[in-house]
Amino acid sequence: LLNVEEDAEALVDGMDAKLESLSDLKTKVSARKLVALDYNSWGTSSGVETTWHAVLSAAGIENGSAAYEQGAFGQVSMSKELIVDINPDVLFLPGWIYGEENAAATFYDQVINDPALASVKAVQNGAIYQIPERLRGTYSHYIIDTVAYLLGTVSTDID
């Protein structure tokens, strides 16, 4: 339609090249068999029919909410009991929450200090990461940057 087929192909080739450059790191992360949840302040996590699931898959990380029923927009209701039952290795929290300036920091503090979540591996091991909104909310070719960010974040303790 726009007559930019060559530019589009170059863009896809660039995305493929970036994914390929991350393949060794993905192999190392995949070997750890990490289970992750993205948990937000309204008590949901992204299910299998979401872009976030595709990002986790591209990073070699299992989506802990994949087995559960999705509601609107692919969201899975996450009670604290369910989080404890899933017992994720990693929790990804929002880096920004609409409404007040420190909402994301407040939510982070609530999660890490919640006695109901104290037995969760991610909490015990400090594997709780806030995802910058520019990465969490992208649905363009920049999604490769989100995959790279996740791989870089969860691989900090890999030799």
Strand order of the largest sheet: 3-1-5-6
Q: Percent of residues in beta strands?
A: 5-15%
Radius of gyration: 17 Å
Separate helix tally: 8
Question: How many angstroms separate the termini?
Answer: 47 Å
Structural class by SSE content: alpha/beta
List the keywords.
159 residues, alpha/beta, four-stranded parallel β-sheet, 8 helices
Description:
The structure is a single chain. With 159 residues, this protein is α/β, with parallel strands linked by helices. The protein has helices spanning 5-21, 23-31, 51-58, 80-86, 103-112, 121-124, 133-136, 143-154; strands spanning 35-38, 44-46, 62-63, 75-77, 90-94, 128-131.
In short:
The protein has 159 residues and is α/β, with parallel strands linked by helices. The protein has helices spanning 5-21, 23-31, 51-58, 80-86, 103-112, 121-124, 133-136, 143-154; strands spanning 35-38, 44-46, 62-63, 75-77, 90-94, 128-131.
Topology:
Blueprint: H1 5-21, H2 23-31, E1 35-38, E2 44-46, H3 51-58, E3 62-63, E4 75-77, H4 80-86, E5 90-94, H5 103-112, H6 121-124, E6 128-131, H7 133-136, H8 143-154
Parallel strand pairs: 1-3, 1-5, 5-6
Antiparallel strand pairs: 2-4
